[in-house]
Amino acid sequence: MPDLAAISHAVDLAAFANWLAARALAALAAHDKALHAALIEVAEALPAGAPNMAKLDALLKKVREINAEAYADMLRELEANLRAFISYEADYRRRLLAAIAKAEVMEASPERIKAALRDEPFQGRLLREWAQTLGQATAQRLRDTVAIGFAEGKTTAEIVRAVRGTRAGKYQDGILQIDRRHAEAVVRTSVQHFANYAAQETYRQNRGVVKALRWVSTLDSRTSEICMLRDGLKFSLAGKGIGHDVAFLGGPPAHWNCRSTLVPVTAFDDDRGQRAAAGGPVPKKTTYADWIKAQPASVQRSVLGATRARLMREGKLDLTRFYDNRGRWLTLDELRDSDEATFKRLGL
Predict the structure, then answer these.
(1) Which residue has the higher pLDDT, 317 or 94?
(2) Smallest Cα–Cα separation from 62: which of 92, 86, 85, 40?
(3) In sequence order, which residues have a C-beta less than 8 Å from that of residue 337 and are 6 or more positions away?
(4) Three-state DSSP class for residue 99
(5) Which residues contact 272 (CB under 8 A, 6 or more apart)?
(6) pLDDT score for 281
(7) Bridge-partner residues for 265, per DSSP?
(8) What does the pLDDT look like over 166-203, one tens digit per residue?
(9) Helices (H), the chain
């Protein structure tokens, strides 16, 4: 049961990350009109030919300010939603553990959960540092695009087009999109990071119930070698391998866009190397395809879409690859409702 609940929750976390990524990108896009207008002012104020870089930097002051405010707004949007998410996730992990152990369990330290956004880095940096890094990278790209454009004799319209993208490319081919794609990766990875941070904090508070952690990876053709190697392996609460010497790496996320999670191993678990699934135990290497096929039609439609779900049931859809379905969004309230439905379905 823990593994099945973990996979279901991980799928919903991906949908929550989709929603949060859209909110973050919308915060950035809200400044696009002002940014484009400021760039036009810069372009029209520069003489033809290679620009004087000192003068260019002075003219770009307003552009830098608008760009910095855009990323500050993105950070505020992320912090507000992630703060609520971390609190919910810690409570979800507590309730899941209580359901598995059929016992009262302790909640994670409220102080540590509250401080997570401020103090816990992922992929080497804190959330606010990633926002700052992305903003600085965008500012540098804008400067380089204007400088190179004028050196090459491009018109103002051509320079602005290089920044915002083309209509034919659905405005996805401009330089602004480079760091926005990076921003999406930051959002998705941050959701996984804080989810697993909340999990580990909860499990550490319940050492009398949790005897180990098991790494559970989404098993499909997109699974990284890092996560394939660790899938199913057990680690102590301190991150030491149990029966192996594979590094814990601090737990998931082990890389950008990682989809792995941690499941508590309790005294109530069956250690015979199988994963629980609807209809009975199955071999430990249960895949995402196995999981989705075992779900009710309503869940299949929600994850795959109505057409794909029908084709899958008819045996006409290849599920050897994971359908991330980035068009599926879940707000935090919807994530909470979906988790409650999973608990009821599994009898937890």
Answers:
(1) 94
(2) 40
(3) none
(4) helix
(5) none
(6) 43
(7) 212
(8) 888 888 889 999 999 999 999 999 999 999 999 999 99
(9) 2-29, 32-45, 53-59, 61-101, 110-119, 127-151, 156-164, 176-204, 225-230, 288-293, 297-304, 306-313, 332-346
Please check whether residue 53 is in contact with residue 301, taking contact to mean a CB–CB distance below 8 angstroms: no
Between CA 324 and CA 195 the distance in angstroms is 18
- Binned at pLDDT 50, 70 and 90, residue 16 comes out as very high
Cα–Cα distance for residue pair 146/154, rounded to 1 Å: 9
Which residues, in sequence order, are bridge partners of residue 214? 234, 263
Residue 40 amino acid letter: I
Give the tokens for residue 15: 């949908």
pTM of the model: 0.80
* Of the ranges 100-104, 186-190, 205-209, 243-247, the best mean pLDDT one: 186-190
The token duo for 143 is 């400067």
Average pLDDT, the chain: 85
- Residues 6 or more apart whose Cβ sits within 8 Å of residue 238: none
Task: Flag whether pLDDT at 323 surpasses 60.
Answer: no
Residues 6+ away with beta carbon under 8 Å from 314: none
Do residues 9 and 325 make contact, with C-beta atoms less than 8 angstroms apart?
Answer: no
Both tokens of 29, joined, read 């896009």
Which residues, including other chains, have CB under 8 Å from residue 63's CB and lie 6 or more apart?
A: 35, 38, 39, 42, 139, 142
90 Cβ neighbours under 8 A, 6+ residues apart: 107, 108, 113, 198, 201, 202
pLDDT at position 282, please? 42
The DSSP secondary structure of 143-189, one letter per residue, reads HHHHHHHHHTT--HHHHHHHHH--TTTTT-SSTHHHHHHHHHHHHHH
Burial class from Cβ neighbours inside 10 Å (0-12, 13-18, 19+) for residue 272 reads: exposed
Cβ atoms within 10 Å of 113's Cβ, excluding its own: 21
Structure tokens at 24: 């973050």
